[in-house]
Amino acid sequence: MWARVVRLTVRGGLGGRQAFATKANPQRSGSINADVIKHLERLALVDFGSREAVARLEKAIAFADRLRAVDTDGVEPMESVLEDRCLYLRSDNVAEGNCAEELLKNSSCVVEEYFVAPPGNISLPKLDEQEPFLHS
Amino acid sequence: MLGRTLGEVSVALKQGQITPTELCRKCLSLIQKTKFLNAYITVSEEVALKQAEESEERYKKGQSLGDLDGIPVAVKDNFSTSGIETTCASNMLKGYIPPFNATVVQKLLDQGALLMGKTNLDEFAMGSGSTDGVFGPVKNPWSYSKQRREKRQQQAQGESQAAEWLITGGSSGGSAAALAALTCSAALGSDTGGSTRNPAAHCGLVGFKPSYGLVSRHGLIPLVNSMDVPGILTRCVDDTAIVLGVLAGHDPKDSTTVQDPVKPFTLPSLTDVSKLCIGIPKEYAVPELSSEVRSLWSKAAGLFESAGAKVIEVSLPHTSCSIVCYHVLCASEVASNMARFDGLEYGHRCDINVSTEAMYAATRREGFSDVVRGRILSGNFFLLKENYENYFIKAQKVRRLIANDFVNVFNSGVDILLTPTTLSEAVPYLEFIKEDNRTRSAQGDIFTQAVNMAGLPAVSMPAALSHQGLPIGLQFIGRAFCDQKLLTVAKWFEKQVQFPVIQFPELMDGCSLVFENEKLASVSLQQ
Hints:
The structure holds two protein chains of two kinds. By secondary structure, chain A is mainly alpha-helical. Chain A has a domain at about 30-70. Chain A contains five helices and two strands; from the N terminus they run H-H-H-H-H-E-E. Chain A has helices at about 1-10, 15-25, 35-45, 50-65, 100-105, and strands at about 110, 115. In chain A, strands 1-2 form a two-stranded antiparallel sheet. Chain A is flat. By secondary structure, chain B is of the alpha/beta class. Chain B contains 18 helices and 13 strands. Chain B has helices spanning about 5-15, 20-35, 45-60, 105-110, 145-155, 175-180, 195-200, 235-245, 290-305, 320-335, 355-365, 370-380, 385-410, 430, 435-445, 450-455, 485-495, 505-510; strands spanning about 40-45, 70-75, 115-120, 185-190, 205-210, 230-235, 275-280, 310-315, 415-420, 460-465, 470-475, 510-515, 520-525. In chain B, the strands form two sheets. An eleven-stranded mixed beta sheet of chain B has the order 1-3-2-4-6-5-10-11-9-7-8, sandwiched between helices. Chain B has a two-stranded antiparallel ribbon with strand order 12-13. In chain B, helix 10 packs across helix 12 (about 370-380). Chain B is globular. At the A-B interface, helix 3, helix 4 and helix 5 of A face helix 10, helix 11, helix 12 and helix 13 of B. Chain A: Its EC number is 6.3.5.-. Chain A: GO terms for molecular function: ATP binding; glutaminyl-tRNA synthase (glutamine-hydrolyzing) activity. Chain A: Belongs to the GatC family. Chain A: Keywords: ATP-binding, Ligase, Mitochondrion, Nucleotide-binding, Protein biosynthesis.
């Protein structure tokens, strides 16, 4: 079962995984439904990969739900422990740089001074556009 | 020489009792002998020897740079080191060679320290066992200590149990193991929820978390920007003061460092604690706390009291929801911080080239472990529009309540808080892996993460050996930016307690050593 999903994934990006997610009846998983799974995978660009991962997220959410019991009326959110201090801003002068060569060295795909990325205006395949679930 | 404190080694170097290159070679040799601990991911042998030679030249000319000149240090592998692979124990960064040094690393190098290598950790510092990195788990050196073995023999548990090695705690377990195994004089860790203090407690070391904003995070690959700090691991508090003196201070490259002036300092030796007020937070006495740790905590409080200090019970009312709050904030910030790993500019990149999104997705699936992906997904869940208010903002509000709890206690006249660092001594690896990373992290971080949320300084001090011959640590927490005061009190405690040095007679004498059921079945040490 897993081997099949992995093969699909290699061929069609996340399409295979998403198909799995709906096929495995996510309604069983309580608050996480297929739409949320899809949405999270798309936002995070990281996939769940298994039922266990979805179960783990559900446990994480259940854990986080304990916060509801805390009374926070009139309390302002705290973003930083240093909120009482002014953020340090340095003067807008060029102090360093000119290290393009060094930075390009770390990339696996470079052409002259460019990082090379695949085409950007193609979204991940939508559910109805995926390849059919093939048998091995 | 290897078991001595940084201060003692520094004196020995200055007096010419040992040269930096001799010291460096001894450490490198011990690193080889203790390879089975899996403390190091990268051993920077050539770099260290070169630095040692340069240090030796300086000593010859009487121009040593200071207390850290020629001192071997190990650095956790989530600090960027120029020209030396930095992996964060993840496939995502395998082979990544940073073009710059983290500020704290640069400061150590500028003082002449020898970089022995990069140490193992939980992947991206997510974990409290140092068991979840791609290079495998780190073994606690105390598993093989004479102290533990003697206890086991007394309890007739026999050698067949010797293979049951213990975790170091995490996520800076590699740094802790490297230091506890005597392969260096100090080690850098990071501390987001207790990642320096937890392994310090399990490995019998001083694990110090500075106030947030005191030490630069530039070059520390971030986990939670509002809580991360570099942590300092040493064998004694005076050593911590030496290292902190070098590392602390404003860094123009890290705008979250405060601009208050900072000077290197020597810790006074307190003789009179009668003006001190120690607070014991009652909410930390949780049922899961082991009876041994609980009794040690009580004994420590008694120690202060009989020396004339005021010891009072205090309340940090929001303690019970602190770990939940940390869990939400951590996952949320992680989701954001991990977004930079897309395979384009650095790190792992997959073979798919259909589209950027497909490439990013596959790269991240291949590069990140389940634990990391799990946190990213949780974090993204908490940050969804429909959840933002109820989870993320809610957690930020609870954070304020937790931080205020501490402020209120300190304002009521308490100088230092005393709490356990961990629920128990180090557990066997096979026991630890029975639960998942999130559960273990929640247990491991329980006493330590509130401190990160409040940005306070804290230190785990080795307090005593357990009935199994294993270290137990206790945590001292101070007011923000009162790091010196905190370390001064810790130093007093250290003197009272006289925690034993770890003993590995076999490793030191050059005998052959056999570990049943270990992958590296025998370690034969020919000098």
